[in-house]
Amino acid sequence: MSKQFQFKLVLLGESAVGKSSLVLRFVKDQFDDYRESTIGAAFLTQTVTLEDQTTVKFEIWDTAGQERYKSLAPMYYRNANCAVVVYDITQTTSLEKARTWIRELQRQADPSIVIALCGNKSDLSARRQVTQEEAKKYAEEEGLMWGETSAKSGEGVSDIFTAIAKKLPQTAAPPKAGGAARSGAAASRAGVDLNKQSNALGGQNEPCNC
Ligand SMILES: Nc1nc2c(ncn2[C@@H]2O[C@H](COP(=O)(O)OP(=O)(O)OP(=O)(O)O)[C@@H](O)[C@H]2O)c(=O)[nH]1
Ligand SMILES: [Mg+2]
């Protein structure tokens, strides 16, 4: 039987960098020129099937980038297996904000969290302010995954989520045996191997993050 995994993914980044647009592209393969700014956070799921038929289900928390929602973020990244920190390649300040999020994740999130830095709006390369070299160098220094995307054209979007899906099952801590596996927080941080009976949290019974 092929392996099945389930992971919690959180999107962080300054308002208007395109977090919700990236999720909309990834989950529904759609794009909206006039998206409303997210209020609080939005929850969506999407499953990726890898070449070896392993399936990875992402439980995605798309957080609100506006400053007034900043204090909510720890609730979403606390149990996350992976974080996609998004900046807009046409706005240098958005990379600064991304660095702030990454520092916060490095201090406060689970040490095993996989972090991907994502430069969105690659279709607007004529207005580029952040070079690929600069972002890539920073990502390498911090041990982050890195990629550029365009939620508008779709370029790079599935690549970044697939790369995360490939990386996750390898880096996630093995599920704890026995009773510990039933404790929601411990099991979800380690990722859930859906083939393992003792570890199957069964969706609806999972404790809510909010
Ligand atoms: N050209 C271009 N525009 C984009 C892209 N991604 C998002 N946008 C536009 O950027 C604006 C903001 O996108 P959102 O997805 O709402 O941004 P967000 O990061 O979710 O913002 P908050 O919810 O406020 O945190 C919208 O007008 C989108 O249409 C992209 O790849 N290219
Ligand atoms: Mg949004």
From TrEMBL:
Subcellular localization: Cell membrane
Source organism, top-level taxon: Eukaryota
GO terms of molecular function: GTP binding; GTPase activity
Pfam family, one: Ras
Matching SMART domains: RAB, RAN, RAS, RHO
Keyword Protein transport recorded: yes
Alphabetized NCBIfam families for the sequence: small_GTP (TIGR00231)
Full protein name: GTP-binding protein RAB5
